[in-house]
Amino acid sequence: MVIRGLAAGVAMLGTLAALATAGPAATALPEAPPRVSPGLAWGTCPPDLSRALRCGTLDVPLDHTRPDGPTTSLGVSLAQATGSKVGTILVNPGGPGGQGMWLAAAVQRALPADLRAAYDIVGVDPRGNGHSSPIQCVDTEVFDKAPKPDPVPRSDDDKQVLLARARAYAEGCAARAGAMLPYLSTEANARDLDAVRAALGEERIGYIGWSYGTYLGAVYGHLYPQRVDRMILDSIVDPSPEGIWYGVNLGQDIAFQARWRDFTRWAARHDAALRLGATPDGVEDSLARVLAGVRAAPAGPVGPAEVYDMLSGAMYDDDGWTPLARALRAYLDADHGPITKLYEPPSADKANSTAIYTAVECADGPWPRDWAVWNRDADALHRANPILTWPNTWLNAPCQFWPVAPREPVRLTGAGLPGVLLVQAERDAATPMIGGVAMHRALPTSRLVTVTDGGNHGVFVFNPNKCVADIAHAYLRDRTLPASDRTCAAGAAPDPDTGKDR
């Protein structure tokens, strides 16, 4: 899926990452021992996680068809119910490649007191990811050294250079993580979740997933409908087998361009404060001048690839619009400080997220093995959708060379599932509205809540909306779904004119 919130181009949206870094400042749990789980010994957590959590590890089969074969280790976290527990909710932030252990504390903090009292919230770092036997495909300090190659090719020779880079990435994955690659997929992640459920001693379990986590949750519900207590899917991947994942990424290229147009209209309305242009075309011209400038002479580590990363990252959440706009304007005023401050250097965590993103997407469904297909589609899309098309093409191009044969995508039926709550922002770029509609169609017991005119990725918990929260909290309390599909109005866009971004 197609999550590109980090500068490296994958994993969680910026809002989630910000909450993750805020985690360790949370209040620690009291010294009373945590509730005992049959297959998990809870203890202290790694230092990068909130002190409000308890953590443990669980060994699961590397190959779930061979339960007595080799195993891999999962990191699991617990935000314990503060009162009389009535259930457990597993949470996943998306990706593929998003770490989940930190998320348990963030979700618990966001819930009202009665739900914090009622639910254990459990986070899992998916296999190969984070604290779960992490893999790497490349030496990120070399491969991702900035400025990276310009992702928008000017010639066939440029394309061949970038294609060779994609091949090298796939070969690096085979060399460094080849033993793990055949066992990285959404189905394997879903079966791991059921192993966690069993280790917790729960007959049924709740689930909340965002972005790729919606697809993971839906696949879990397809495999184990009798194990699902309740389920919220927010910012929804189109689960249609025909689109997993090549077609989904093509659709995302179009949706990011539409969200960029939202940005240009917003920036033009606030031209007095932002000075990027009084019309959307004027804002486009400002971006063109920035890209021309960093192509001619990078601003420190920032070349065109890094600018495209900043653009796509800001389209996940409009909290990022004002910093992006001010950085572009400053660059045009010969001040490179703000744009270099937005640059996020390579890190082991980002490289791990990229590796998992690539491994899972390449494995989950078929990808073209003929470069002519990729080239035709990217050339055609780029003409009208230049913000994401070529950067996204190169992010996924290792799948053309992937050393593991893809699986047949899961065809969801929704059979046996209880009522499912779906939440979707109408103008979400990372998971376009078509995904919410398709998931609603695939899960007959679902209700769809649409945030009209909203474009932020991740609504419940991460972009608070009282209308959505009221519906979700009622559902978590007693499984009450709306009698029919609902709409909720989006919040106000940032207002740089007053200095108030929200």
UniProtKB/TrEMBL annotation:
Annotated keywords: Hydrolase, Signal
Taxonomy, superkingdom: Bacteria
Gene Ontology molecular functions: hydrolase activity
AB hydrolase-1 domain location: 88-278
Classification via InterPro entries: AB_hydrolase_1, AB_hydrolase_fold, Pept_S33_TAP-like_C, Serine_prot/Carboxylest_S33
Segment forming the signal sequence: 1-20
Keyword Ribosomal protein: no
The keyword Signal appears for this protein: yes
Span of domain Peptidase S33 tripeptidyl aminopeptidase-like C-terminal: 390-488
Family: Belongs to the peptidase S33 family.
PANTHER family tied to this protein: 2-SUCCINYL-6-HYDROXY-2,4-CYCLOHEXADIENE-1-CARBOXYLATE SYNTHASE, TRIPEPTIDYL AMINOPEPTIDASE
Name of the protein described by the UniProt record: Alpha/beta hydrolase
Native source species: Streptodolium elevatio
Lineage per the UniProt record: Bacteria, Bacillati, Actinomycetota, Actinomycetes, Kitasatosporales
